[in-house]
Amino acid sequence: MRALPERQATLQTERLLLRPLQERDAERISMIADDAELVRYMSDSLPHPYTVAHAVAFIAASHRDYREQEDIEFAITLREDESLIGLLGMDLNTKDDHVTLGYWIGKPWWGRGYMSEAVREIVRYSFEELELHRVASHHFHPNTASGKVLQKAGLKYEGRRKEHYKKGDRFFDIIDYGVVRSEWEG
Questions:
Q1: Which residue intervals of the chain are DSSP H helices?
Q2: Could you tell me if residue 171 is inside a domain?
Q3: CATH number of the structural domain spanning residue 42
Q4: What is the pTM of this model?
C-alpha cells in the first residue's frame, strides 16, 4: 500500500464529490443519520438517536484516524450543490494491503444509484491510487440493496456468517463480499 498523502484526497464522479469530513458537516450528518430506518441494518457504530455531539466526535476521530493511516472517511456530496447525502469509510489494514468499506446514505437519496457510484470510485481509488491488494465489505441480511451496491462495484459474494451480529434482541447474518486487484483489473 502506498502511504496516504498528508492531505486527504477529494474524488469526483459524474454526480458526486467524495471529500474529507469538515466540522461544519456535523449538523447535517446528525440530521440525516438520526433515522431509525437508516440504522435498522447497521452496526451499533451508528447509534440511534444520532446527535450533533456524536457527529462532532466522529469527525474529530476521522481526522485522527487518517493521520494515523488507519481509516479514511469521505463525505458523499452532490456535485451540483455540494450537499452532504451520506458517508463512506475505508478501514485500512496496511499490514495486509486491504481495506474494508462501510457506508450509508440518507433515505431521500435511496434508489438513485448514488451509493453504487461512490463505491465504484472508492474501489478504483483503492486499487489505482492507494495500490491496495484487496477491497472487502459486508452487509446485514436482509439488506439486499447493499449487496447490489457491492456487486455493481465489482465485489464478489464470498460467504455468509450465520447469526454473526447481535443488534438489540435480534441476530443478523452477515453477507461478505470482496475483490482482489487481479480480479478487478481483469
A1: 26-33, 36-39, 52-67, 114-124, 144-152, 181-185
A2: yes
A3: 3.40.630.30
A4: 0.95
pLDDT digits (tens, 9 = 90+) for 151-163: 999 999 999 999 9
Give the mean model confidence (pLDDT) for residues 87-104: 96
Exposure class string for 105-114: b at 16+ Cβ within 10 A, else e: bbeebeeeeb
Query: Is 3 domain-assigned?
Result: no
Number of domains in the chain: 1
Per-residue pLDDT at 2: 86
Nearest to 135 by CA among 180, 93, 72: 180
Which triple of cell numbers denotes residue 21? 469530513
**Structural domain boundaries enclosing 119:** 11-185
Nearest alpha carbon to residue 161 among 173, 149, 153: 173
